[in-house]
Design goal:
The complex is a heterotrimer of chains A (513), B (309) and C (368). With 513 residues, chain A is an alpha/beta fold. Helices cover 32% and strands 25% of the residues of chain A. Chain A is globular and about 70 Å long. Chain C is mainly alpha-helical and 368 residues long. The chains are: A alpha/beta (513), B mainly alpha (309), C mainly alpha (368).
């Protein structure tokens, strides 16, 4: 009798390494038909790598893959698809300018050569009714919300006859309510005999959706448990490898004068659609205002307007009492505003320049780094030495190209640069996104320290836990409007979730301060 | 000379001059739709022109010449594809190298053939019935070679393939988002190789047309920067094979007029017209709203590496 | 990591300088070997060809001076291009910028009344200005109207070439030149001095070497250089940091085009002493300079040496024409081959080859 005949999927002793890292170290994992098996671990634990191996995107260095009792060798995703494996990547693999039907038809065997999108559109309607996944096949992907795009991805897998569906961090772009909808769909799929692999680093949702949970840490499997036999604390211990403190120690908030006042701000997206529709908010020195919301509701545009990277249509932005509504990025930075950007590699660093050169970006044009058009290398070196030490940036040296640093150290480099000179206002977008627990903790501490030093901090994040932990007040953004502001101590997850889904809170708290 | 015969002559020659531009542009559109810029069009065209002439002269039939032009264009393009897709070299530099190399090699090999007329040029095909229509007949249907009609047909076929078939979806997806295509089991490399090779075939034929049909002789540097006009036309036509037709014949007219008007303006200034217009046309399409402006394929010029980390 | 028999192939993110140099050197050698095939196909023994070239260029004072003379415009254009390429601006227009300099210098030499002592400095100044203007146009077109600079700079090469043609056939045609398409000869005060016994117009050479040093310092030690590097490596980060893309690009192109134009001044004032058809003034220096800058990997100092290498190739082209009867186009083939072989070697630098460790060899994916 063949080994693993019962399992929908069996991965045995998978090892996969990249230059400098062993992403998967003899990992064994199995999935039964009709179950949801969660793969839990921090960022960088090797979950996605393992699933890319199962999906044929990476070839393992060692190890075996069995699908329904047969040993298989996956050379490309095509092989995986033919074996009934589908994957919804964390960053959707969709062609944004193309229509939904064209996206689904791409590479789909059995579609007619001529006008494939039309035929696929019909099949799509049928399938989306069966699983409760409504989408319009004729719309362009870029017009869809993140939740709708995810449905397209799931349908893409189902239309290819996926028996096994891999979902990589599927809830990161959803409101709590949308996530609930997704879990219902997963239930329906389970009932039809599909197996689901659910990748996540969020303990609560894993406990509520999964039948079994496998925890990974640093490329290895720590253990597999049944959901009903474990709890949050135990999982957290397995995931991080030590006791986890769920609360940071945080001194009471002592708000000072207004660092940032925004009144009736309007702006548009790159495509010309309205992004901000009358935002008003205030951040005081010494407090953290958390800005919650599902991605794509205007966070990016708000941050860009506040940092001078996007022109507002109307409204007013005042920083420390100075009107900087249409000021350039340089003027705003010079006025003492720090910006920790969302896309830290695309915006925050110049990959080919050295660590020390990256540390003076934005300040390179002013003394002490620049005199009469010339760079003062001694001052640069001195500053870099101090920053590397103070922020514990792990780098082979100050002249190493920044691109060689790990994600956490790149973020520390950016913080070291932005927080030098004690800015009055810090605008931090997703500051811990994608970082491991150690770096995350360190960066949260740095932000709190900055708050105690008297900076006002606008913290934009999709991670509700992070916002609840760090912020003093929480404002929720939905379709370019603020649904309400609550005190962090009094807010419940459900209340914030409702606001994230567009329910307005009638009584504004804290605005009068 | 009355103005109708002047007009007939001008349109007919403009059409004939637009043919190499059309073939070249159609090819470059496919290459760029799949995500690969090939700045070697000028090199592929001149190699095609040389090979077309040499083979047609040797074998005594223009068909063989055109076939050779297509083959040489394909070979040159495959070399570009190998460098940029497999070795992931910079597409701009590889294309420039191809042009430098092509111009040099064709000049080197063609020295002995210089100035001799082709003994078996490709003749014009008069379309039955249509060519007898007054004015329009001689304008469009009498003095054209088969490549004019084939080029127009090709533009339509390539448009249909690109926008109405499975292949088209695959090609456009590879050019917009290769990671997506890859995740659905489409071989990004294969699609790109094929599209770039097609681009080479069409550019080669475009070059071959010059030496075998348009001006049946070999002259060094006879492509005269047409390959670069093709690159501009690709942008101007918004990567759409049907729109390439208008652009190609407009520039064909400009080239032709730069000869035709020499009685009135000094020839050197006239000859700069197509190049000046290429800049003007691109600048003009830069005016206006972002919505009107056509977007280049999303992954144009970017080598694809699976799972880079 | 890949395993090839007993070898390991490992990716590396930043190749050390020695590897860059070694691989580039090998690439040039490979190109020369490929060129040997061309010789052979042409019925010339490659051994004979290369030994003739070696003797004729490196073996005599005249040959050496010819290399330097050919290298002068390549140094100036190449150094200018390193600036543009550092800003990731694909300036393919050095050829046209060079010609613009030649035109402006000719204008000053023949038609402007200045005291003799000021004539040459003014020619260099006017040349620089003309090249700067010719080069800044594509930069502005790119910034304001998003016109692809490869096309605009190339088209402007053609336009400038035809302007030169027009000038020498028309308005500037020298009355004393009896029907040839030349301007009149420059007055003596507009001719550059030569190093005795050679044809090296040393002031241009000095300007070129000085430019290389200045540009190197500019890139590493000044605010403008820093901003050029930031703009080139990550334009989004430049915007984030409040660096003006438009003005940095415009300044880089002013310098890039201006330097290329100085090469044109040197050619008309030091070699030809008149303006003539563009193919004679330049011989494709502007295009070759792209390879010069690419081979130098964006380092202006290295560009001086790579320019000398291509000066050698040009000198060899002259030689092959006279001694072996090979057409001058062979230099184009050479240049293309070198560029091909360079870019193919790029990927090579990012892999490190190691012996596989001794431990139990992995059996591979059975059944594949």
């Amino acid at each position: 009798m063949a080994e693993g005949a019962r399992e929908a999927v069996l991965l045995r002793n998978i090892t996969k390494s990249f230059p400098g890292v062993v992403a998967n170290d003899r990992v064994t994992f199995d999935l039964q038909p009709g179950e949801v098996h969660a793969l839990l671990g921090e960022n960088g634990a090797g979950k996605t790598t393992l699933m890319n191996v199962l999906y044929g995107l990476y070839r393992p260095d060692e190890g075996e893959i069995w699908v329904r009792g047969r040993r298989v060798h996956l050379r490309s995703p095509r092989d995986a698809i033919d074996l009934g494996i589908g994957m919804v990547h964390q960053h959707f693999k969709l062609v944004a300018p193309h229509g939904v039907a064209e996206n689904v038809a791409l590479g789909l065997s059995g579609t007619p050569f001529w006008a494939p999108a039309r035929t696929v559109g019909r099949q799509l309607k049928e399938l989306s009714e069966r699983y409760g996944l409504p989408v319009d096949p004729d719309r362009r992907v870029w017009e869809l919300s993140a939740g709708e795009q995810q449905r397209v991805e799931i349908l893409k897998a189902l239309i290819r006859g996926a028996q096994v569906l891999i979902l990589d961090e599927p809830t990161s772009v959803l409101t709590p309510q949308e996530a609930g909808e997704l879990f219902k769909v997963l239930g329906r799929m389970k009932a039809e005999g599909h197996g689901v692999i659910f990748i996540s680093h969020k303990l609560d949702e894993v406990l509520s959706v999964a039948d079994r949970i496998t925890v990974m840490r640093r490329g290895r499997v720590v253990g597999t448990v049944r959901a009903e036999e474990t709890d949050k604390a135990a999982l957290a211990r397995m995931m991080v490898g030590r006791e986890v403190v769920f609360r940071l120690t945080k001194k009471a908030c002592q708000p000072g004068e207004a660092a940032l006042v925004v009144e009736d701000l309007h702006a548009r997206t790159d495509r010309g659609t309205p992004a901000l529709r009358g935002i008003s908010l205030a951040v005081c020195r010494g407090e953290i205002l958390g800005l919650a919301g599902v991605a794509g509701n205007g966070q990016r545009e708000l941050v860009e307007v506040l940092t001078g990277l996007r022109r507002p249509e109307r409204g007013r932005v005042a920083i420390l009492g100075q009107d900087l509504t249409r000021a350039s990025a340089r003027r705003i930075a010079d006025a003492g505003v720090a910006h920790v950007p969302e896309e830290r590699i695309r915006l925050g660093i110049v990959p080919g320049l050295s660590v020390e050169e990256n540390l003076i970006l934005k300040k390179h044009h002013r003394p002490p780094f620049c005199r009469a058009g010339g760079l003062r290398l001694a001052a640069v070196r001195q500053f870099a030495g101090r920053a590397i030490e103070e922020y514990r940036i792990m780098t082979p040296g100050p002249r190493t190209p920044a691109k060689l640093l790990s994600g956490g150290n790149i973020q520390k480099l950016i913080l070291a640069r932005e927080l030098s000179g004690n800015p009055a206002l810090v605008i931090a977008a997703h500051p811990t996104y994608g970082l491991d627990v150690g770096a995350t903790e360190q960066i949260r501490e740095i932000l709190l320290r900055q708050r105690e030093a008297g900076a006002g901090i606008l913290l934009v994040s999709e991670d509700l836990e992070e916002i609840m932990e760090l912020a003093d007040r929480i404002a929720v953004l939905f379709r370019g409007e603020i649904m309400g502001t609550v005190l962090a101590g009094e807010a419940t997850l459900e209340e914030i979730g409702l606001m994230m889904a567009g329910e307005r809170r009638t009584v504004a708290v804290g605005e009068e301060r | 000379m009355d103005w109708t015969s002047w007009l007939v002559g001008t349109v007919s020659r403009a059409l004939a001059f637009g043919v190499p531009l059309l073939w070249g542009t159609l090819g470059e559109i496919y290459a760029e739709r799949s995500g690969v810029v090939n700045l070697g069009v000028e090199g592929m065209m001149i190699l095609g022109a040389y090979a077309g002439f040499a083979v047609a002269q040797t074998l005594g039939h223009p068909g063989w010449g055109l076939l050779a032009a297509a083959g040489v264009g394909a070979l040159a393009a495959l070399w570009h594809a190998f460098l940029t897709v497999t070795l992931r070299a910079n597409q701009y530099v590889s294309g420039l190298a191809l042009t430098l190399f092509g111009l040099g090699l064709a000049g080197l090999l063609g020295r002995g053939w210089e100035g001799r007329p082709l003994r078996a040029p490709l003749g014009a095909v008069a379309v039955p019935v249509l060519s007898d229509v007054p004015v329009l007949g001689p304008m469009l249907f009498r003095d054209q070679t088969i490549l004019t009609y084939l080029g127009l047909l090709l533009a339509v076929v390539l448009w249909v393939v690109l926008f109405r078939t499975r292949w088209g979806i695959a090609i456009r997806s590879v050019g917009e988002s290769p990671a997506t295509a890859d995740s659905l089991g489409i071989s990004v490399a294969r699609v790109r190789y094929l599209c770039v090779a097609l681009g080479g075939v069409l550019a080669g034929v475009g070059g071959g047309y010059l030496s075998v049909a348009y001006r049946p002789a070999w002259t060094e540097g006879m492509t005269a920067g047409m390959g670069w006009i093709v690159i501009a036309l690709t942008i101007f036509s918004a990567w759409d094979p049907l729109q390439a037709i208008w652009g190609a014949f407009f520039f064909g007219a400009l080239y032709h007029l730069s000869f035709r008007l020499q009685a009135y303006v000094s020839p050197e200034l006239l000859k700069m017209m197509p190049y000046a217009f290429a800049i003007l046309v691109l600048a003009a399409s830069g005016f206006g709203r972002a919505r009107w402006r056509a977007r280049a394929p999303g992954a144009l010029g970017v080598p694809y590496v699976r799972g880079e980390r | 990591m890949k395993r090839l028999g007993p070898l390991f192939l490992e990716r590396r993110l930043a190749p050390p300088r020695s590897v860059v140099f070694g691989v580039s050197f090998l690439a040039v050698l490979v190109a020369l070997l490929l060129a040997a095939l061309v010789f052979w196909a042409y019925g010339v023994s490659p051994v004979r060809a290369y030994s003739e070239i070696g003797r004729g260029t490196l073996g005599t004072v005249g040959g050496l001076s010819d290399i330097v003379r050919r290298a002068i415009p390549l140094i100036l254009c190449g150094v200018g291009l390193t600036l543009a390429f550092r800003a990731q601006f694909w300036n393919i227009g050095a050829e046209g910028q060079l010609l613009a300099g030649a035109v402006a210098a000719t204008g000053v030499a023949l038609f402007v009344r200045v005291p003799d002592g000021f004539r040459l400095p003014l020619m260099f100044l006017a040349g620089f200005g003309a090249g700067a203007v010719w080069a800044v146009v594509p930069a502005l077109l790119r910034v304001k109207l998003r016109v692809n600079e490869v096309i605009s700079t190339l088209m402007m090469n053609y336009i400038m070439a035809y302007i030169v043609e027009w000038l020498v056939h028309g308005p500037w045609k020298g009355p004393t030149m009896r029907g040839f398409a030349y301007t009149d000869m420059f007055p003596v005060s507009a001719r550059l001095p030569l190093i005795a016994g050679t044809r090296i117009h040393w002031p241009t050479l000095a300007v070129g070497v000085l430019a290389a040093v200045v540009v190197a310092l500019l890139l590493s030690r000044t605010r403008l250089g820093y901003e050029i590097r930031v703009v080139g490596q990550n334009p989004d980060a430049a915007r984030y940091a409040g660096i003006s893309f438009a003005s940095v690009l415009a300044l880089a192109m002013v310098l890039s085009g201006g330097l290329a134009a100085l090469a044109g001044v040197g050619e008309v004032a030091g070699v030809h002493w008149r303006l003539r058809s563009p193919g004679h003034v330049s011989m494709g220096y502007g295009y070759t300079a792209i390879i010069v800058a690419w081979l130098a990997r964006g380092s202006p100092i290295a560009a001086v040496f790579t320019a000398l290498l291509f000066g050698l190739i040009f000198a060899a082209g002259d030689l092959m024409k006279t001694t072996l009867g090979l057409p001058f186009q062979i230099t184009g083939v050479f240049n293309g081959l070198i560029l091909f072989s360079l870019i193919s070697s790029d990927l090579l630098m990012y892999w490190r080859v190691r012996w596989a460790p001794k431990e139990k060899a992995w059996t591979g994916q059975a059944g594949l």
